[in-house]
Amino acid sequence: MKTLLKNGTVVNVFTDSLCEKDVLIEDGVIIGVDSYTDTEADHIEDVTGKYICPGFIDGHIHIESTMMTPTELSKSVLIHGTTGIVADPHEIANVCGKAGIEYMLKASENLPLSVFLNLPSCVPSTPLDESGATLTAEDLMKFYDNKRILGLAEMMNYYGVVNGDKDVLRKIEDALAKDKIVDGHAPLLTGRELDKYVAAGVQSDHECSSFAEGSERIEKGQWVMIRQGTAARNLEDLIDLFDEPWNRRCILVTDDKHPSDIYNDGHIDAMIRMAGAKGKSIPKAIRMATLQAAQCFGLKRMGAVAPGYRADLLVLNSLEQVEVRDVYCNGVKVVNDKKVIEIKEPELDEAILNEVNNTFNVEKQSSTDFIYPEESNRCRVIRCIPGQLLTEEYIADINWSENNGIDLNRDILKISVIERHRNTGHRGIGFIQGIGLKKGAIASSISHDSHNIIVIGTNAEDMACVANCVIEQGGGCAAVCDGKVLSKLSLPIAGLMADLSAQELSRQHEHLMSTIYSMGSSEEVAPLMTMAFISLTVIPYLKINTFGLVDVTEQKQISLYV
Amino acid sequence: MKTLLKNGTVVNVFTDSLCEKDVLIEDGVIIGVDSYTDTEADHIEDVTGKYICPGFIDGHIHIESTMMTPTELSKSVLIHGTTGIVADPHEIANVCGKAGIEYMLKASENLPLSVFLNLPSCVPSTPLDESGATLTAEDLMKFYDNKRILGLAEMMNYYGVVNGDKDVLRKIEDALAKDKIVDGHAPLLTGRELDKYVAAGVQSDHECSSFAEGSERIEKGQWVMIRQGTAARNLEDLIDLFDEPWNRRCILVTDDKHPSDIYNDGHIDAMIRMAGAKGKSIPKAIRMATLQAAQCFGLKRMGAVAPGYRADLLVLNSLEQVEVRDVYCNGVKVVNDKKVIEIKEPELDEAILNEVNNTFNVEKQSSTDFIYPEESNRCRVIRCIPGQLLTEEYIADINWSENNGIDLNRDILKISVIERHRNTGHRGIGFIQGIGLKKGAIASSISHDSHNIIVIGTNAEDMACVANCVIEQGGGCAAVCDGKVLSKLSLPIAGLMADLSAQELSRQHEHLMSTIYSMGSSEEVAPLMTMAFISLTVIPYLKINTFGLVDVTEQKQISLYV
Predict the structure, then answer these.
(1) A192–B contact, CB cutoff 8 A
(2) Contact yes or no for A33 and B195 at CB 8 A
(3) Helix ranges, B328-385 (H)
(4) Which position among B95, B215, B382, B549 has the lowest Cβ density within 10 Å, counted as fewest Cβ atoms?
(5) What CA–CA distance (Å, rounded) separates B68 from B48?
């Protein structure tokens, strides 16, 4: 069956140029980019006045952060022109271990969206964490024979790499020996320490938050993944990397993006649109998001509209607006005039579903669990930075007499992390600034990377109530005020993902977000996403886990009290 | 053992920029590019005022055309900064078959020069040829497991690819299935035919002789190999490909270059120098010859001075002049102040040596063998084009009465190809214009790709004499005048390569060339190299084999007589 896209303007990612050509497709492959007569194809699509470009590839995404199953995710990103993703299933792996990776492989099999996986390199993210599972180098090895496994995902333990931790290096060596790639994650690492990290074989980084950080990595041979997610939005700070020569070694990724943000703003298309709005070349940005993403991961004959390339391509109404009309995956039209054609959910066997659907093991909480001992008036407070995952340490004078230290005027709230995998009763307590809640409490079973229950609140009663709401749902998020559940989102799959359609999930998620905003927080803060990373002990500086505060730079627990 | 190159200026191929840095090497790998103190290394090399750049990679070379053994070749190109080559052993394969490939693999094992091979795709080059061996798809398969085999070499049978020849496509599919690359060779192929050829999986071309030809291939996703050899010198015609965006998809190759040319002009360094002299950016040209060559062939962590990269690097006295002072291969200094350090010849077992050293099977020639029947006064003459492998057909009135049709005034000489592998007695006869001999005759057992004996002469007696001189040597080249051998070069290895040092070979080769020039030919013509390609029936338009003239476009024998 030959399909002919006629009279379009092709975006050539080898030359960053536009050219009026017909595109002939057969058996999922582009067999010609030239001029053809209608008699030479079985099916003709007139795309006069439209643009034809390669499908976009998201080089680093955590499917769990979209809260969608792979099938629902594919529906919601395909309409935005994303035809391939490289996912790191380390959230579900932190909860379910190997079964989590198996679930992601099976649940993403034979979708129109090309789903590649990298193996979680740090489960748990650090020895400080209490996760639901541990993945050793041996655990990972068996997965490398799967063609959809491209390598080892973000090596967050740069401390271990730089200091020659045997188990960490073993995982890297295994990946390289299997001729696979190793992705990085090393915020603020620089100079000779960065050299050691790169020399170990780590080929990329998606944590750059400044041009200096990005350009240094490019000079040292790494691929820089320009990230624009929900909480971490680096595109504007890295906008100069869209210029030559830097753009030759950059690709575009979302990392962690909420369902409603994908639904409302878009995906990789939104990043290209943004770059264009900032005066950067759209064809070059498209090259970064297609051909270069493929090159970064050694994906052959993907990412271009050229003979012999896989027919993953887009028909755009507008180049400037990156307005996606139709999408072809492997030569088959899957999005027609902005509507996705029905996608069949892969069938999963019961054993895997049981593993990922029953992951909670924790007692009901009471308000006394959230009353802190008054040991000192000077305490360490976690200060959030809007639009970043980095946090600062701020030493505050705590007035214990009033609401056990909570001070709404200074926006000092309580934060607590409750172990939920093995019912150990472990709980970390702390204060946080920058979330902005004026009443009630919020909680989530999404708390990177161990995904225990994280709670932020303005009073102990609501904190207990919201935590229990999450527990009763067997995972999810909720907002509570004066003992009443104002909004909740159920995430039964490993406490991370919903079994809802993208649209319904997005609706519920938006309701939850607007509820949280109505409680005093703001979109600028991205409270749920920000909260989810306050427990990630690999991103500087001050974080919190099930044992209490953590000094990330020193990689050790520190006291709440100074 | 840590080696530190101190105070150099590093050429960064990721950014096309220069930067003053120290380079730290350990166990053959670059572990840091930063500032270091002397105490941090076991051995210090002060390279103040010098440039440090990655070693050059020749992306397409026939070792046989240099007439040197791999060991001698490595000596002669290392001093010019070439630390890696991708060789196609199809000359020796046409003579010795699989044994020829085995010889090249064994003879290039563990040399400081990284020698990679692509498997000859067309042995014989076409069904018209009488070669010493035939290589089937099955014959090739066993070689793919060798890590130094990168793929399938120049697929010259583009007619077969475009028209779906099963055996040809099978060879391509095998290479791609083994996750290897397929190099191309398709002079003048364009438009939809080229699309078909590229769509089959052919990733490169080294036969471009115009910007239009090169840019079309780049637009269609191929790598363009800019070639500057002895006879085929395309760099000047392709000079604009050194500009953006074209240079991103180009690499530099020599293909076929004579020993004295390498000895006198240089290798890849000469091409970069030439591009610089024509006003092109030297750092970009270096990027094309290093990082991009590695990318073209999927060679990981090669082709850059960056952490984790293989320590194949050069110390240059001058960037503009690309003046190579020292060369490091895998971290070991192999060229010191322009002098190559002794290289040990790999040991070869007798069986292989016997196979490649006894390849002649042909009777002694007599002058009557070179007297042509006078069937018509209008004959087809092969017309050479200086600096190109392309030939033209020229219909000439032949005056048989005088010297059996030879006409020195019009530079119409006799050319003959004598089968020499199986003593079939087959001989092709024809006329040639553009060689310029005024007396005597020249002959060579280097005649692409079948490597029968090719003879060009001004009279039958000298043609017989020079052919016999080649036969007596068991392979080689010679120049004869008035029955006297004026100069000869013995090439006992498959009739293609000498067992001489690069210097001695170069001396003898220069003597032979100057002798041929003294007989009337000129350097501009490159008579030996040009003669060697007159029998290659895959390069348009008029060629000659052991059965007579060949119309390359039609791929059929045609009569000498019109």
Answers:
(1) yes
(2) yes
(3) 350-357
(4) B215
(5) 36
- Four-CA torsion A354, A355, A358, A359, nearest 10 degrees: 180
**Is pLDDT above 80 for B464?**
yes
Inform me whether the pLDDT recorded for B529 exceeds 90.
no
Most confident of A125-129, B179-183, B505-509: B179-183
The answer to whether A164 faces chain B, any CB pair under 8 Å, is: no
Q: Packing angle between helix A502-518 and helix A70-78, nearest 10 degrees?
A: 90
Per-residue tokens: B6? 């101190």
Partner B contacted by A33 (CB < 8 A): yes
CA A452/CA A437 separation, integer angstroms: 21
Give the closest residue to A458 by CA, choosing from A515, A542, A520. A520
Amino acid in position A282: I
Interface residue of B30, B220, B287 to substitute, partner A, most A CBs within 10 Å: B220
- What CA–CA distances, in Å, run from A451 to A124, A367, A477, A496, A533? 10, 21, 12, 8, 10
β pairing state of B332-336 and A204-205:
unpaired
Characterize the bridge pairing of strands B556-558 and B548-551.
Answer: antiparallel
pLDDT at B471: 98
By C-alpha distance, which of A437, A247, A313 is closest to A50? A313
Q: Is A343 exposed, middle or buried (0-12, 13-18, 19+ CB in 10 A)?
A: middle
Is A281 an 8 Å CB contact of chain B?
A: no
Q: Please tell me if residue B221 touches chain A, with a CB cutoff of 8 Å.
A: yes
3-state SS, residue A52? strand
User: How far apart are the C-alpha atoms of B160 and B168, rounded to whole Å?
Assistant: 6
ipTM of the complex: 0.91
With CA atoms as reference, the chain A residue closest to B147 would be A179
**Mutate which: A220, A291, A295, vs B, most B CBs within 10 A:** A220
Q: How far is B318 from chain A, CA to nearest CA, in Å?
A: 22
Q: What pLDDT, on a 0 to 100 scale, did the predictor assign at position B86?
A: 98
Q: How far is CA A15 from the centre of its chain?
A: 31
Rounded mean pLDDT of B399-423?
97
Cis status, amide bond into B197, omega within 30 of 0: no
pTM above 0.95, yes or no: no
Give the CA diameter of chain A: 84
Query: 3-state DSSP helix/strand/coil percent for chain B, to nearest 5?
Result: 30, 30, 40
Q: To which H or E segment does residue A327 belong?
A: strand A323-329
pLDDT band at A159; cut points 50, 70, 90: confident
Confidence at residue B388, expressed as pLDDT on a 0 to 100 scale: 80
Residue of B nearest to A162 (CA): B31
Report the gap between the CA of A118 and the closest CA in chain B (Å).
Answer: 18
Q: Tell me the one-letter amino acid at A108.
A: S
Are residues B218 and A307, on separate chains, in Cβ contact within 8 Å? no
Q: Enumerate the residues of chain A whose CB falls inside 8 A of the CB of residue B196.
A: 31-32, 307
Cβ–Cβ contact B175 with A under 8 A: no
Q: Does A464 touch chain B (CB under 8 A)?
A: no
* Angle ∠(A150,A258,A450) on CA atoms, nearest 5: 65
The predicted structure's pLDDT at residue A501: 87
- A416-469: per-residue pLDDT in tens? 999 999 999 999 999 999 999 999 999 999 999 999 999 999 999 999 999 999
Scanning every residue of chain A, which has its alpha carbon at the shortest distance from the alpha carbon of B304?
A221
The strand ranges marked E within A230-322 are: 250-253, 313-318
Q: Which of B56, B285, B57, B295 is nearest to A203 (CA)?
A: B295
